[in-house]
Amino acid sequence: MTYYQRQLQSQMREGLMKDGLSPLIAETMAFFLHNPHESLIVVDRECRVEFMDRRSEKFFGLSGGASKGMMITDIVPQSIFPKVIETGIPMVGNILLLKDKYSIGSSFPLAKNGEVIGAVGHVIFDSLEEIKRLHNELKNLKQQIESVREAQNLQHRAYYTFDSIVGNSPALKEIIKMAKRAASLNQDVLITGESGTGKELISQAIHNFSNPDRPFVRVNSPAIPFDLAEAELFGYEKGAFSGANRSGKPGKFELADHGTIFLDEISSMPLSIQAKILCVLQERECERVGGSKIRKLNLRVISATNVDLKRQVNQGKFREDLYFRLARFNIHLPSLRERREDIPVYVDHFLKTINKQFNTHFKRLSREAHAWFMNHDWTGNVREMISILEQAILKKWEGEEIPLDCLPEKAITHCTQGGLLKKEIRETERDLLLQALKKTNGNKKKAASILGMPRSTLYKKLSEYDLESENPSEN
């Protein structure tokens, strides 16, 4: 600091103290005369320098105190001081190019009795560099956030649409029609059906029909540990329990906000959690474990189960109020054996898919294998069919046609045994019908009574076994 600056600071301190200001305020005001981060320049009405801090003098290549009396425009040609003194209007945040370095400068007029007598200004030398640095940091942070969001969107994304659903049966067409209606109305849905019937496929199609860009959060209910179910579904605040994330964690319902949450096998949910799920369904709000803030939610809830929930209610394993709330819009998926006309369509579709996976070229099933497929019970539904086709292709490996002997041995044996049993049952049933008609001398009403079946059923059975002409008495 120059002698001139030390004297000025000393005089300023003394003057401020005489005015009754505290030492802290006096030191603060004096600080601005020697601020290492910003310049301070004072000029008179002719734009001659009255004061310039030492850092500025060094920056402009001047010795200590040499700036006093110099025209500011000789030091800074693009100075804004002349315009401020001329107009009496402050100029704030102007970008200045000083020695090939951009800085931000501001200038304010100094007036006495309504007349401008000079101006004071300052320059933040490192301002633009700092702003650029912060801008780059914010840009990088934004990119990181976008990457996290993209990864989260990929994780919580639905891939299937209604176009992904294979099959032409009337039952399947009706299901698609109902599902599209539920999607359009933004309804909560309960999807029931045996394992492997495509419950998640339908749920994703419903989501993508109305909210394809929103999150689809899948919850595999049986896989959630019992003691962590509440925290997983509803989230928790920091310190909620031992081992909790220090910053807390959002739950599945929060992650699905503005989208869809899919509760697969909801029958596996603990009774204690079912009450909170009911609250979400009714109030569209949830509360984190260890928290007190109620979070409002805007989402669709799709549940699925392969068990009879009504029976679960009767056994005390599922809340009745939750069951009725879920069952307001129910879509039941029939098993594959209930829509056998879709079997050839599935075979053709999955052969093409598996061929791409294994680089094979199978086009069809043999006649015997096709007959087996059409008569198999398919207790595992579509999932079982995919498994059997994969095993058969891996066994055969080459060719265009899959023969019966390439199907899993256990499945063929089961089918053969089942076929023999069905044949025996039909033969036994036919004999019983003939015996009943013989005992009643062809009286179908009495025969139906002996057999313990309605007459309509008896007529159906007689037609099925081609026995309508056997003693055709109606008495």
Briefly summarize what is shown.
This protein is an alpha/beta fold and 475 residues long. The chain contains 19 helices and 14 strands. The strands form four sheets. It has a five-stranded antiparallel β-sheet. A five-stranded parallel β-sheet has the order 7-8-11-6-12.
Could you list some keywords that capture this structure?
alpha/beta; Beta-Lactamase; Rossmann fold; Helicase, Ruva Protein, domain 3; five-stranded antiparallel β-sheet; five-stranded parallel β-sheet; 19 helices; 14 strands; elongated
Account of the protein in words:
The protein has 475 residues and is an alpha/beta fold. The protein folds into four domains: 35-124, PAS domain (Beta-Lactamase, 2-Layer Sandwich), CATH 3.30.450; 156-334, 3-Layer(aba) Sandwich (Rossmann fold); 337-407, Helicase, Ruva Protein, domain 3 (Orthogonal Bundle); 415-464, Arc Repressor Mutant, subunit A (Orthogonal Bundle). The chain has 19 helices and 14 strands. It has a five-stranded antiparallel sheet with strand order 2-1-5-4-3. A five-stranded parallel sheet has the order 7-8-11-6-12. Helix 1 packs antiparallel against helix 2 and helix 7 packs across helix 8 (199-210). The longest helix is centred in the last third of the chain and has 31 residues, at 409-439. The model is unreliable at 1-5 (pLDDT under 50).
